[in-house]
Amino acid sequence: MTAAPPPEDRSMRPRAWQQALPWAITLVCFAYLYTRLAGAAAREGTDLVGYLGAIFARVSWTRWLLLMIPYSAFFFLVDSLVVWRVVTWFNAPLRYSDILPIRGSSYILSILNEQVGKGAMGLYLNRRYGVPGWEVGSSMIFIMFCEFYYLLSWATAGYLLRGAELPAVFAAIPWLACAAIGFLALWLAFFRGPLGRGRALRERPLFKSFRESGLARYLTIIVLRSPALLAAVVVYKQALGLFGVEASYAQMLGYLPIIFFGAATPGPMRTVAITLWVILFPGNEGEMTTFGFVQHNFFIFFNAAIGLLFLRRANRELFGATDPADAR
Q1: Terminus-to-terminus CA distance in the chain, angstroms?
Q2: Which distant-in-sequence residues (6+ apart) come within 8 Å of 138 by Cβ?
Q3: How far is CA 231 from CA 2, 8, 75, 114, 151, in A?
Q4: 87-111: per-residue pLDDT in tens?
Q5: pLDDT digit string, tens, across residues 204-258
Q6: What domain count does the chain have?
Q7: Torsion angle, alpha carbons of 134, 136, 138, 141, to 10
Q8: Burial class for 200, CB neighbours closer than 10 Å (0-12, 13-18, 19+)
Q9: Among candidates 171, 162, 155, 167, which has minimal Cα distance to 257?
Q10: Which of 90, 159, 185, 239 is the least buried, fewest Cβ under 10 Å from its Cβ?
Q11: Which residues span the domain enclosing 288?
């Protein structure tokens, strides 16, 4: 006789409201955008399709691509630098060029979910360089942990710069930053200080990267990522002008980190980021909806296109030769 499968643990399944909430937020965002766009189209004396079509027709897409393609490539190089730095700290002494194929290829999976893309990098490091799976997972978690603090740090700076111009809901950002600093202090005390000494949880392989990281390493990742955001301020300001909306660099330095912070929310809730452009630039509903939509989606899909350039090499290194030197 074969053993019966264990009963499903219903306590581990997300509740119906938890599954429905992101979709409900998405629907509310789209309803809000539709209402604003329909009103703007009516003021122009046209229908919604004609209103949006006219906006698309006015944009110089050649100039827009000349801005976005170099920026996306620069982001890829910075992002790969962060992954390389973390992997060489905790896992294996790889060259920067060794990281490019797998980081680029992981962007293809990141279309669906960023965490799936990081999981693919973990599989690559495990299969290609023999890094234990739990230790690879520790490095990927460390990267995500630092990404949160990077985005929150810049979002806080953005609020301090332009908080008076933002909707009242964003006043929670400095409080969230204070709570995050307090949590980080406890986190460091547990994994690096006396608070967690002798605790089994601290010694688990999944937390290897945190045991080996003082505050300087967290700050290093934030600093390494920051050039990508500063470049985005310049590129987005110039791109916004192509849509007929003027903004200063100071405005973009204040607004963009907050929008990126919202866009980093996984799943359908990323729709909120598009809505924020309309809220922050009232009176330009069509331009800002179009701008937010094309900026966000071009970035995702162009990164995936970069991944396609490296996909053949990544597959060869992952499923071909077993000696890392063979693929070099």
Answers
A1: 52
A2: 90, 205, 206, 207, 208, 209, 210
A3: 60, 48, 9, 22, 15
A4: 999 988 889 988 888 888 888 877 7
A5: 888 999 999 999 999 999 999 999 999 999 999 999 999 988 899 999 999 999 8
A6: 1
A7: -130
A8: exposed
A9: 155
A10: 185
A11: 43-320
The rounded distance, in Å, linking the Cα atoms of 104 and 123 is 14
106: tokens are 């992981």
Phi and psi of 91, rounded to 5°? Answer: -125, -60
pTM of the model: 0.81
Tell me, yes or no, whether 240 lies in a domain. yes
The token duo for 142 is 């460390």
- DSSP assignments along 201-226, one per residue: GGGSGGGHHHHT--HHHHHHHHHHHH
What is the torsional sign of CA 320, 324, 326, 328? Answer: positive
- Considering the domain boundaries, does residue 306 fall inside one? yes
Which one-letter amino acid corresponds to residue 87?
V
Q: How many CB atoms lie within 10 A of CB 98?
A: 23
Amino acid at 239: A
Q: Is residue 14 part of a domain?
A: no
Three-state SS at 322: coil
Tens digit of each residue's pLDDT (9 = 90 or more) over 168-208? 778 888 999 999 999 999 999 999 988 888 888 888 888 99
